[in-house]
Amino acid sequence: MARAALTRVLEPGEEVGGRWVRELGAVEVMRRLCCEEGEGEALRGVSAYRLGGYRLRAVAAVPRRDLEAVAAVGGRFVCPGDQEWPRQLDDLGDARPVGLWVRGRPHLRMWALRSVAVVGARACTPYGAHMAGSLGSGLAERGWVVVSGAAFGVDGAAHRGALAAGGATVAVLACGVDQVYPRGHSELIGRIAEQGLVVGELPPGDHPTPSRFIMRNRVIAALTRGTVVVEAEYRSGSLVTARSAQRLGRFTMGVPGPVTSGLSAGVHELLRGEGVLVSDADEVVELVGEIGDLAPDRRGPVLPRDLLDPVAARVLEALPAHGAVRGRDIARESGTSGDEALGRLYELHSLGFVERHGDTWKLAAEATRTGDARRGGA
Description:
CATH topology of the largest domain: Rossmann fold
Number of helices: 17
Number of strands: 12
Oligomer: single chain
Number of domains: 3
Order of helices and strands: HHHHHEEHEHEHEHEHEHEHEHHEHHEEH
Shape: elongated
Radius of gyration: 31 Å
Distance between the termini: 73 Å
Largest sheet: 9 strands, mixed
Structural class: alpha/beta
């Protein structure tokens, strides 16, 4: 009850309040805030003016009413020490949330154990929306939980990708979990609450502010194993999330874009540092997953000439692109003996690479047209 009340007193990420709770406990902090000024031991570390503001909030807090309000929308309050509390949030130290308001049926701690954040620009390009949606669905199909902030642009695309794949997704809000922000995502947030989880530090009814969006990002970073940034300018809240992840020792990844796009400039700056370049869900899972979760090898198409042994390949390369030559000339060009060259030519003839015309040899028309031979256009 004391922690639920403190979510109305302390702003998200306030380290001085977090230190009070760590040193004194939530109940004692609320007792000192609610007692008459001058009575009992004072809380230290803030000005008298700021402490007065805390006292006004503490006296006005009615935690039981907030708990009833969140229960009415199918939610609950989770705090440190509960079985459902994600222990990786403890890495935030005194900036750790006092507690989390949670809406949805799944178990928050279990979902957070295998989760990845996908964040990025609100005013994203079609490319950014496509990549975010592809990452969201790809991660969900591989059994990973997609965490984002339910904002327009990349966040919304990532959530929709996960939902479309029938997967798990978590929206971390900068307002009460009974609120809808942005308003245009009313249907999306409703779907997330039904199929996944909606999480926030602020009590029911509270509204978002610019500073609350910034502080919300540290929760996204701490809750997940890694953060993927899809499109971000130099001044972007998504980069705040990525830098928080780096400070916490989490994996930080970025999806590259055109070097001429200002929306990708922040991502490219991230990749020049400690960020890892990723292009799909397989590469993300290879980084954040367990041993053996490897992305498939990437290579171009295998041409028939790639399957030849080195000597046969050398003999084939010795043939000119046009015209026929004698076997001894081929042997000289390929650096082999006459008998070796002749044997390889018959082998290449049987495979359809070359044609024989009396005592001379030439590239087959098919080999020249498809570029299987290096001098034929490969």
